[in-house]
């Protein structure tokens, strides 16, 4: 009788111990991995939906997350800010410091498109998210996104489409073909985990006509229709519950002052300044510029320009305001110039005729893009405040369940956008290591406890048995 009690207690203890060991690890990592579509509509300013009907963007906001705005890194131009989206690093840290590649010894310059193919310009020690995802076993693709053409540490994004030279970035029919390719072919058929998708509008229209024009408003409606088309494509391929979508942009746009009253910035007209003192320059490129003075000429050039125009800011590289994070990289030239909103920097004479420009200080509200997100991991109908775009990268890594590279962002800034906000520790290395350790300790602890129970029970039973013999 007592023996059978002892046996049942022992069996129970054994069952309990196996239950401890066999319990599924019902912790953070129970969440399934969803796919991610990351979209940039070039130059879509944070407030572009305020004076236009945007039913599809509105619906996306109701079903997902909408930020008041996001703050791009300085310099607020296309390639540098897109590479920040892909890496989570400030521009001085990732090294893609301009849309143009240049060589200060040969004076050679390459425009935006040709620069896309200069591998060692992009591959300057920071890996874009595609490569990191691929190294951790995921499949990545990119369509027209800046940086797509380049090779990084001998790897390239696995599935890519680079736009041809002189591509028409404004053709809505082409946009839909691109969406069909990404959603139908790349996600649904080829099962990619991450795709970055780029549209060259409303930037082009904003430059040409200015941001406060009927043309820009019409283009925003085209963008909105495209958002509707994208969400419909996702739905009809049955991907809605498995695909997160983030839509943002690289920078905003502001109107350039024109006409008789406009006090234009023309460097050659500034007393005491001469291009003969300059070894290499990058001007006539919107509101920013960089100068490399000839040997011994730095102070002369600097003092001629500093304070010479009420809307021109002149900085030595080492004196740049730290908040701009645009000084440390060796590619940045010794003198940096930028203009107040509405002004552009001309060299010898005015050669810039865009009605809209970007490239200004990233604190200027007109430089800030929009941000929207929707999908299985995002909360619904949530409005959040503004945040810096460096924080988007850790969010994307978290959504994909990959370990991020070193970056300047933080998941803490964006994690409140996610469902199961208490399950955040899953994917970040340190914390998942901690979790594994905890599970390990729990298992070992459980085993010890069981052994203790078994031993004690056994001893007790034995004693009881001996006592009964007495
Ligand atoms: C610039 O050109 C010089 C001379 O051809 C070359 O030695 C140097 O490596 C080039 N620099 C870059 C950044 O390509
Ligand atoms: C980054 O570029 C700079 C200047 O072009 C160069 O000196 C440096 O070696 C590059 N770093 C890496 C890791 O590619
Ligand atoms: C727009 O793109 C489509 C598909 O590539 C093409 O057939 C059409 O000719 C283009 N339209 C214009 C106006 O270029
Ligand atoms: Zn752009």
TrEMBL record:
Pfam families: Phosphodiest (PF01663). The chain crosses the membrane at residues 435-461. InterPro entries: Alkaline_phosphatase_core_sf, Phosphodiest/P_Trfase. It comes from the Eukaryota. Keywords: Membrane, Signal, Transmembrane, Transmembrane helix. Residues 1-22 form the signal peptide. CDD domains: Enpp (cd16018). This is Uncharacterized protein. It comes from Coilia grayii.
């Amino acid at each position: 009788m007592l023996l059978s009690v002892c046996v049942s207690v022992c069996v129970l203890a054994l069952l309990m111990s196996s239950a401890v060991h066999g319990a599924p690890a019902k912790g953070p990592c129970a969440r399934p991995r969803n796919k991610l579509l990351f979209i940039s509509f070039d130059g879509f300013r944070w407030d572009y939906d305020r004076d236009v009907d945007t039913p599809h963007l509105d619906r996306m906001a109701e079903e997902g997350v909408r930020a008041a705005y996001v703050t791009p890194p300085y310099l607020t131009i296309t390639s540098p800010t897109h590479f920040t989206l892909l890496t989570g690093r400030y521009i001085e840290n990732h090294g893609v410091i301009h849309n143009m590649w240049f060589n200060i010894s040969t004076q050679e310059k390459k425009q935006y498109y040709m620069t896309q193919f200069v591998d060692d310009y992009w591959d300057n020690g920071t890996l874009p998210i595609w490569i990191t995802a691929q190294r951790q076993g995921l499949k990545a693709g990119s369509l027209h996104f800046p940086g797509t053409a380049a090779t990084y540490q001998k790897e390239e994004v696995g599935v890519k489409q680079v736009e041809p030279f002189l591509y028409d970035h404004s053709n809505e029919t082409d946009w839909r073909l691109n969406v069909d390719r990404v959603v139908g072919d790349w996600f649904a058929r080829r099962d990619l985990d991450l795709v970055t998708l780029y549209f060259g509008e409303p930037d082009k229209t904003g430059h040409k006509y200015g941001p406060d024009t009927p043309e820009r408003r019409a283009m925003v409606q085209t963008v909105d229709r495209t958002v509707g088309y994208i969400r419909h494509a996702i739905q009809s391929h049955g991907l809605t519950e498995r695909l997160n979508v983030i839509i943002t942009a690289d920078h905003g746009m502001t109107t350039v002052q024109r006409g008789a009253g406009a006090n234009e910035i023309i460097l050659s007209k500034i007393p005491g300044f001469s291009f003969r003192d300059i070894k290499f320059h990058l001007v006539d490129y919107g509101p920013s510029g960089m100068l490399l003075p000839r040997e011994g000429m730095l102070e002369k050039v600097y003092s001629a320009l500093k304070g010479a125009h009420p809307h021109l800011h002149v900085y030595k590289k080492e004196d740049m305001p730290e908040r701009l994070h645009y000084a440390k990289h060796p590619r940045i030239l010794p003198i940096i110039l930028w203009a107040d909103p509405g002004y552009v920097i001309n060299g010898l004479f005015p050669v810039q005729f865009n009605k809209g420009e970007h490239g200004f200080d990233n604190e200027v509200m007109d430089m800030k893009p929009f941000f929207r997100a929707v999908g299985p991991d995002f909360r619904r109908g949530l409005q959040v405040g503004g945040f810096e775009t460096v924080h988007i990268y850790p969010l994307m890594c978290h959504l994909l369940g990959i370990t991020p590279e070193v970056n300047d962002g933080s998941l803490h800034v964006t994690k409140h956008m996610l469902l199961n906000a208490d399950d955040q520790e899953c994917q970040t290395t340190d914390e998942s290591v901690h979790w594994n350790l905890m599970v390990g300790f729990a298992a070992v602890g459980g085993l010890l406890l069981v052994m203790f129970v078994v031993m004690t029970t056994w001893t007790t039973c034995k004693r009881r048995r001996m006592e009964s013999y007495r």
